[in-house]
Each structure stands twice: as C-alpha cells, then as structure tokens.
C-alpha cells in the first residue's frame, strides 16, 4: 500500500480507494477481512487490530503494528498517508453518535466512573462501526464519527450507515426493557465531502472528512434526542428506504441558512 500505482496521481489514488464500491479495492478487501480478527484498538483505515491474538496475527503475517508517530494508524497505512497526504471529494454517508447530557452525567458519576462509561461507549461504537464496514473518523469527547464510503462498505453504503446507527442504539440499551446504559442520539446524512489524510509529509497526518455535509451531520447528532436516529431525506433516498410514516421534522440547524428535513428512526422501529 505504500506506493502509488504507476501513472496515478495522489488524488486519483485516494478517489479509487474511496469509491470503488462494486468491486472492493484491494485495501477494501483487506479491511473487510481484518474486521473479523479480535480485537480493539485498531487502525482507523485498514482495521488491523493492535492487541490480543488478532494483533499478533497481523504483525506476524502482514507486519502491521501501531505506527510510532500516530498510533491511530498501523505502520503501513501511516506510511501511505504520510507519503501521499491528500484525498478526494466523494459521495459518502456519515454517522455521528453523541452521548446526550454528558455534562450532567460527568457531574453525577464523577471523573473515574464517567471515564469508564466513555470507554465502554467507545468500545461498543467501534465494534458496531467496524463490523458494518464503516471508517472510524473520530473518537473524541463524548462523540463517535463513522464514515461509510463505497470503496469499503460497498454499493449499499448508505443503507449500512442507517443500519449501523440503529444497531448502535440497540447496543447501548435503547429499546430494551431495562433502558439504555448510556443515552445516545445519532445523526445520519448523505452528501459530498473531502475525505483523506490531512497534514504535512514530514508531520503527523489525520484521516478525516471535511465539508458542509460533515458539519450538518454533526449538528444532527447534537439535536437528536436520547434513543433517536435523525436520518436526512437525502440519506433515506440514497439508501432506498421507505419513510413508512416515520415522524418528519424540518430542522433549523446552527450555521445553516436553509432548514434540513429528517425522519426519526429508533433502535426497534
């Protein structure tokens, strides 16, 4: 993965990696395989596990291990991202999941118990995103960000994003008789964004998505109530889903001039 194909520009390489949805790229196929190996933490790009039996196996057979400069990536993916920083503007689906009322929770639980709650949430969310072929963009504060691109999640990437959002609610106890062990709201959107590695060739790079669609998804997650998945009409159309009489909302999101239409999904209905 560390070298570009002959006569291929950096932008072309990133676009191929991110958009080859009908026939997975070599990187996409590797990523799909590695998700079945235990366990977290993992490389944000290729899913290579860094711990346990899975970590030992990928180190033995593929030479993959946490990069020295940036342990969020394996050494192989870091070499490529550092050598060829850049990306491409592509269509993708985005899932932002946010713990609701985290400030009050932190005050109630205390710092030690709250940190354990966040750790559990991150582990659960990571498992859901990885096993649905999402890219983990960020685990920060009380929020998780997943990107669903056709090159990794296949042609049904938007439908998989909606399914993953609902699975995340289910995994955090929403819809169960006992109730959620942590209150979570989720936003799902489909649109165009710049996706790739940003940074300098000599410094630490970060894999990210940038653009208006990304900001809109973050805003959706921030206004979703506990146990709600707010899915934009664009995402519903792209996923081929039927609204099925679901609650419709027209939201005025901070920083946006035009309102955005969403439907409300839950873990079970």
> How many separate helices?
10
Shape: globular
What structural class do helix, strand and pairing data support? alpha+beta
Order of helices and strands: HHHHEHHEEHHEEHEHEE
Can you identify the CATH superfamily of the largest domain? Nucleotide cyclase, GGDEF domain
- Look up the CATH topology of the largest domain: Alpha-Beta Plaits
What is the straight-line distance between the termini?
Answer: 42 Å
Average pLDDT reading: 89
Largest sheet: 8 strands, mixed
Structure in words:
There is one protein chain. With 269 residues, the chain is α+β, with helices and mostly antiparallel strands. It has two domains: 74 residues, no CATH class; 180 residues, Alpha-Beta Plaits, CATH 3.30.70.1230. It contains ten helices and eight strands. Strands 1, 2, 3, 4, 5, 6, 7 and 8 form an eight-stranded mixed beta sheet that branches. β2 and β3 form a beta hairpin. The chain is globular. The model has no long low-confidence stretch (mean pLDDT 89).
């Amino acid at each position: 993965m560390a070298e570009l194909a002959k006569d291929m520009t950096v932008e072309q390489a990133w676009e191929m990696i991110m958009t080859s949805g009908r026939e997975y790229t070599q990187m996409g196929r590797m990523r799909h395989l590695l998700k079945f190996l235990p366990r977290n933490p993992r490389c944000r790009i290729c899913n290579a596990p860094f711990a346990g039996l899975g970590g030992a196996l990928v180190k033995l057979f593929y030479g993959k291990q946490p990069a020295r400069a940036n342990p969020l990536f394996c050494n192989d993916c870091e070499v490529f991202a550092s050598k060829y920083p850049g990306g491409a503007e592509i269509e993708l689906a985005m899932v932002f999941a946010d713990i609701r009322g985290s400030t009050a929770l932190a005050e109630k639980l205390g710092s030690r118990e709250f940190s354990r709650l966040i750790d559990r949430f991150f582990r659960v969310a990571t498992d859901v995103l990885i096993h649905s072929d999402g890219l983990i963009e960020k685990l920060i504060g009380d929020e998780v960000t997943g990107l669903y691109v056709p090159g990794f999640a296949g042609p049904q990437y938007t439908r998989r994003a909606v399914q993953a959002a609902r699975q995340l609610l289910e995994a955090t106890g929403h819809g169960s008789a006992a109730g959620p062990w942590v209150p979570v709201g989720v936003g799902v959107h489909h649109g165009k964004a710049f996706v790739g590695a940003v940074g300098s060739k000599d410094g630490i790079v970060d894999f990210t998505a940038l653009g208006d669609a990304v900001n809109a998804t973050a805003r959706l997650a921030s206004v979703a109530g506990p146990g709600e998945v707010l899915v934009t009409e664009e995402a519903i159309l792209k996923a081929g889903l039927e609204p099925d009489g679901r609650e419709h909302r027209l939201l005025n999101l901070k920083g946006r001039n035009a309102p955005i239409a969403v439907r409300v999904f839950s873990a079970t209905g």
